Fold this protein.
Amino acid sequence: MKMIITQKTHAFGVNPLISKFKLMLGLLSGSAIVWLLSFGAIAASSQKGPAPDFTLASKEHGNVRLQEQIGNVVLINFWASWCGPCREELPHMEALQQEFADLGFVILAVNVDEDPAKAEILLNDIPVSFPVLFDSKDEVSKLYKVNAMPTTVLVDRDGNHRLLHNGYKSGDEVKYKKAVKALLRE
């Protein structure tokens, strides 16, 4: 005995329930895409869990420990003097620091040159007000699994790793600014 199952179809041969489902799925997908784009800097690259703690010597601020920054939004920027995009990015980092410093925002610029004197030479040309830390043995870079120069990490006020961004191209500073503003509001 054969069993024949028929579906009620619309005049155009399409099941109206399937059509409604596809429409709803499309709307939900579109909403999700808009939401991700509006929070793209954080949502697309968000990380979970506490940021690994570290202590590094700095150029002018003694030893700096990440855990001492709990309560601030922290941008950790791994850079090197030989990196062209790093040189381009540093002035934008300084502008971010100046704009948000009074709101509980700190930049920790982690230089990865084997010879810190190379960083000093670059910083004579591009002065910055935020702490420049020296990771000449790549210990902190390995801790953060840095595989590109520059690499930027955002840490929220509770010490949680919230953003990882590899490389730099013109306009990335706008994404950083948006992400920093969002974290400062939390």
